[in-house]
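Write out the 3D structure for:
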Amino acid sequence: MRRLHDLAVERGIRDGLILIAGGTQVNDAMAVECGMDAGFGRGTKGKHVASFIVGKMMDRERGQTG
């Protein structure tokens, strides 16, 4: 996760991407610490991921970050 984040920063494209990670051993805190926008672990459903992506895109359109 950190390597993907660092590569996006190095290429100058990080601000244009929504980086998320998932898997049975991933949690949100770990993913965010590694530079992802969010992490989705055990028990996550596709609708949770999709809702996060849509929300993040709407925040960016409004000029909000974080």
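The longest helix spans residues 46-61.
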